[in-house]
Structures are given as C-alpha cells and as structure tokens.
Design a protein that fits this description.
Rossmann fold, NAD(P)-bd_dom_sf, Alpha-Beta Plaits, 3 domains, six-stranded parallel β-sheet, 10 strands, 14 helices, alpha/beta
C-alpha cells in the first residue's frame, strides 16, 4: 500500500514538473511573439472581440433584444452585409448602430493592415527567425555573450564568425536591425537589457566561456561586469571603456581585459604617420591587405605528447611547416621574445606562432593533437 502511494506520488510530481516546464516554455514563446510583431495581431483580435461584446450588450440594453438577437444584430452590423434588422430600431438604436459601423470599419481596417503586414511584410519570417534563434541559445555551452550590437559589437561578432565561435547578442534597442548570418552559424539574439540578471541568465551566462561588453556608457559596463562576475565566477570578461578613469573601476569590478577603442584608435592613427611601415605590418596581421599573415596562440597541452620536452631547434618548425615562426612564448605570466632555441617546450607554455594560413595549417597537422585554428 505504501509502495503504491509512493509510486502515485512520484508520478504526480513528474506530471506537475512536466506541466510547469510546458507553462514556462509557453510564456517564453509568448514573450518572443510579442517582440516580433504578434503584439499588433493580438491587439486586432482583442478589438474585434471587444466590438462583439460591446455590440451584443448594447443591443440588449437599448433595444431589449435577447442574447441571440443581439449577437445576430452585432454580426450583420460588423460585417456590413445589409440584412434586415431583427426588429425596427429606435432613435437611440439607429444612433448607436451608426457609430458602431464607423468604429467597426476602423477596427476592420486595422485588422486587415495587421494581417497584410504579418504575412507579406516579413513579420511571420521574423517569428520563425526568433524561435530558431531562441532554440540555439538553449543549446549553447562554452559560448561568447556580446552585450550591445553597435559599431563595436558588430565587429566583435564578425571576428567570432571568422573564429567559428557560438555567440549570443544582447541588444536593448528594437530599432537596430537584427543580424542575418548563414544557416551554418549558430548564434542567439536577445532583445533585452543586459544589466538585468534575468537577461544574462536567458543568454546562459552560467555556461558561457566569455562575455564582451561593448555598451557606450561606462557605468552600464561596470554594472554588467559586476553582475557577470557574480553569476559566473569563471567567465572571461572583456569590457569597453570610454574614459580612462573607468578602466580601473572595470578591473575592480572583475574584468579580465579592458579595451578603450578611442584611445587605441588615436594611437594607431598617430603611429600611421610616425611609423607607417610598422603599422602596415600590424595591419597585415589584422587581415587588412592582399597578403594575410596570421598570429595564433598554441597552448602546450594542445601539442602531441612527443613534442613536449623537445626544443625548438629539435622540432625545426620553420623548415617543417614551410615558414611558420615561433614569435614569442608565454611562461609564468610573462612573454619571452627571441626564445632560446634549446629551451624545451613545457605543457604549461603558450606559443605565439606567426605565418601564412597554409604554414599554420601544416603546423596544426604536424604538432597538434586536434584542430584549433580557424582559417
């Protein structure tokens, strides 16, 4: 008897949990629909429903019609088909009917324009787009969250696309056009406020690898940094700063890196004048120009086990790959340039490799356990 009761209780809990999950998913779907244009469709439906209710009640009160007679009169008035009245109308009834027809014409016009917009101006495509993007977000792990889809945010997403990284965009301005990428790109787009815990949780911040905060206001970036660090202590945070005084605050709030686009841009422009060939070389590394040089970082534990412990001289990387060069090495939190060719490679090292894409691809094939580079 007790076992039977326990089984029934367990079944009830599972059923209740299933109903709860379905309700949550329904609310999420409704929220998405309101964001992509279904709101106008619901308003049109509500106005039509309200018109029928008001018309039916009014004819009952003014003319003393029964419920069925009042509803019938409302239908023929709304549809303007011109059937005869149930009974001759009083002076008040004719006045109400005249106003009721004008109101219904406005409602019908709004409803038709809404349906036309929904089916022929892309609203239904936006709905399917939003549903697909939302499904992507719910499946993501080890992804990157991009807060803000302005000029900086767009560039961040372009680089993430090149690196074939999954990412979620959070943008609060509905006027900004939603991005359209290829079908093979897995990304998410959330229309919401990135300063809210709920929005960051919707972007699955607990499962994200990094967050890039590109909002124009430093105060908002500091607040998002604090929130992100609290929600995911292990996440890598890159934040934008406009003022130099904000840089220190962002680091205190938990940012791993702070980028000042105006500061960097000014230095770059000045050095284009004072050191034009150095900047030209750096632009090549950034993918600007016909010849594309790439810099890649290689973690020691990515390398084959037989590579660990060997020196650069033994590996002879430049000859083996056709041109890839170890530009620097990071050990103990410091970069080492002009690396000693007889120094053995350790598992905790990070190698900075320079070369053309084909050279780096050869390096990947010869020395690495699996593919990490994106070309």
């Amino acid at each position: 008897m007790l076992l039977s009761w326990q089984l029934q209780s367990a079944g009830f809990v599972k059923a209740r949990r299933f109903v709860y999950i379905r309700c949550v998913l329904a609310l999420i779907a409704l929220d998405m629909m309101l964001q992509v244009g279904i709101k106008r469709l619901l308003i049109a439906f509500f106005l039509i429903l309200m018109s029928f209710v008001v018309g039916t009640l009014a004819y009952q009160l003014i003319e003393g019609y029964t419920l069925s007679e009042a509803f019938y009169m409302t239908v023929i008035t709304f549809s303007t088909v011109g059937y005869t009245e149930v009974r001759p109308l009083s002076e008040e009834g004719r006045l109400f009917t005249s106003l009721f027809i004008v109101f219904n014409l406005l409602v019908a016009g709004f409803g038709i324009s809404t349906l036309t917009s929904f089916f022929f101006e892309g609203e239904i495509q936006k709905l399917f787009y939003s549903l697909g993007v939302s499904r992507n977000v719910r499946k993501m792990n080890n992804h990157v969250i991009v807060c803000g889809y302005g000029r900086n945010g767009v560039k961040v997403c372009e680089e993430l696309l090149k690196a074939k990284r999954d990412f979620v965009i959070i943008e609060h301005d509905p006027k900004i056009s939603r991005p359209v990428f290829g079908k093979d790109v897995r990304f998410g787009y959330i229309l919401g406020d990135a300063t809210l815990d709920e929005t960051l949780k919707e972007a699955r911040i607990e499962h994200a690898a990094a967050i890039v905060i590109t909002l124009p206001k430093d105060a908002e970036n500091v607040f998002i940094t604090l929130t992100a660090r609290e929600l995911n202590p292990r996440i890598f945070i890159v934040a934008r700063a406009s003022e130099e005084s904000s840089e220190r605050k962002l680091y205190r709030a938990g940012a791993n890196r702070v980028v000042m686009p105006d500061h960097i841009g000014g230095i770059h422009m000045a050095q284009t004048v004072t050191k034009p060939y150095v900047i030209e070389f750096l632009d090549l590394l950034s993918g600007v120009g016909d010849t594309r040089l790439d810099l890649e970082e290689v973690r020691g534990y990515w390398l084959h086990s037989d590579v660990i412990g060997k020196s650069l001289a033994e590996l002879n990387i430049r000859s083996a790959t056709g041109g890839a060069v170890v530009l620097a090495l990071r050990e103990g939190g410091q970069f080492v340039f002009n690396v000693d060719p007889h120094r053995p490679i350790r598992k905790e090292d990070v190698l900075i490799i320079l070369g053309l894409p084909e050279h780096l691809k050869k390096f990947e094939e010869l020395y690495m356990q699996e593919k990490h580079f994106t070309f």
